[in-house]
């Protein structure tokens, strides 16, 4: 905690039972902290436990296993992105904070939200149907889509997500495609639209969702593709 934060003060009122629990906790500490110091420590511990502040902690068994693995790696001269000598020094010295510094790609604290994963899957599914359906249309129907869904009907191709503002969506899409081999038709694409697309995807999906249940064993037809693509245009820009 920095010096400026330590200067901040606020009043707190606690019930008698909470004070008794607090005093009992203080008594179990080796240095018998003051009540205010005890509250500060408990707040920090609670925040760390809730994930608001991440503190890496290892139990004795975990330390032993890691040290043994480090020694095994060194003895067998195995190559790894994790430096076993560095990891041993971290464990022996209790420098767990250094793991955040050295390996931010591992200790980043991020976890994909299931709701976002579901939305990405829905959007990829929609565009899979759109691209496949458009590809199967006759030239006459493609010309119809181009005319009636202007300006989106000429190139019916999934543009991806805005990597600057909704990078999580793009990252999940790439993982689904490249690592899980789902939606292989999008393999090899960058998927970074470099512009906002999520709201448009959502408007389109609100239309596609009504149609999706009736797509068993068939592709989207021209009229359905037109209806979905027209939803891409923001309502404020639509002609009345």
In brief:
With 240 residues, this protein is mainly alpha-helical.
Largest sheet: none
- Straight-line N-to-C gap: 58 Å
Number of strands: 0
Helix-and-strand structural type: mainly alpha
Strand content: under 5%
| Number of H- or I-type helical stretches | 11
**Rg, nearest Å:** 28 Å
The SSE order reads HHHHHHHHHHH
Describe this structure in words.
The chain is an all-alpha fold and 240 residues long. Among the domains are: 60-102, no CATH class; 114-237, yfbu gene product, domain 2 (Orthogonal Bundle), CATH 1.10.3190.10. 56% of the residues lie in helices and 0% in strands. Helix 4 (60-76) packs antiparallel against helix 5 and helix 10 (198-212) runs antiparallel to helix 11 (222-230). It is elongated and about 85 Å long.
Protein traits:
11 helices; elongated; mainly alpha; yfbu gene product, domain 2; 240 residues
Topology diagram in text:
Blueprint: H1 3-6, H2 16-27, H3 35-50, H4 60-76, H5 84-93, H6 97-102, H7 114-135, H8 139-148, H9 167-179, H10 198-212, H11 222-230
Helix pairs in contact: 4-5, 7-9, 8-11, 10-11
